Amino acid sequence: MRGSYAKGIKILFIGRLEEDVGIPIYLRTLEILKRKGVRFTFEACGDGSLRGEVERYGMVYGFVKDMDKYIDRSDFVFTSSYLSILEAISRGKIVFSVFQNKLKEDYLKMSPFARWIIIENSPQRVADKIQYFTKHRKEREVLVNKSYEWVKTQTWEKIVSVYLSLWRFNDLNH
């Protein structure tokens, strides 16, 4: 991650542009940052019914095949998708994931990567944490480095095992 944000921070959203993935929270976060005079650019890789609202804050590319260049040029990533979170962590980014209901909160907070991402349901707290990590380089580097060390231990076999254990648990309860 770059050490200076003189030209502003770069925020990337990955996922469906729908209410259930927290788009309203992310957009309110961007509005708070804007009101505070925080310089940023925003890009979104995804599509959905809220595309028009998202386009008011930045560029929307739709669903893309290769996320690498978008993630690489970002400073912070907004996403709540399991694989997108892992990909962003593996590329040295701080991930912000939001929830709007108890199910999504549990999904995020009970995930194996919960300690390596920022999980919130308040746009103000997301904005505050973005500003914090923008100003505190050392803390940002510690989180990025520790999360990267963790993600290197993740394999497809481990991910499959997590999914299988979830499905088996679900099968046992029905």
Polypeptide structure, described:
This protein has 174 residues and is an alpha/beta fold. The protein has one domain (9-172): Rossmann fold (3-Layer(aba) Sandwich). Helices cover 49% and strands 14% of the residues. The protein has 8 helices and 6 strands, in the order βαβαβαβαβαβααα. The chain has helices at 23-35, 51-55, 68-72, 82-90, 102-109, 123-135, 137-151, 156-172; strands at residues 9-14, 40-45, 59-60, 76-78, 94-98, 118-120. A 6-stranded parallel beta sheet has the order 3-2-1-4-5-6, sandwiched between helices. Helix 1 (23-35) crosses helix 6. The longest helix has 17 residues, at 156-172. The radius of gyration is 16 Å and the shape is globular. The mean pLDDT is 90.
Structural classification: alpha/beta
**In the CATH classification, which architecture applies?**
3-Layer(aba) Sandwich
Strand order of the largest sheet: 3-2-1-4-5-6
The CATH class, by name, is Alpha Beta
List keywords for this structure.
alpha/beta, globular, Rossmann fold, 174 residues, 6 strands, single chain
The gist of it:
The protein is an alpha/beta fold. The protein has helices at 23-35, 51-55, 68-72, 82-90, 102-109, 123-135, 137-151, 156-172; strands at 9-14, 40-45, 59-60, 76-78, 94-98, 118-120. The protein has a single domain, classed as Rossmann fold, CATH 3.40.50.2000.
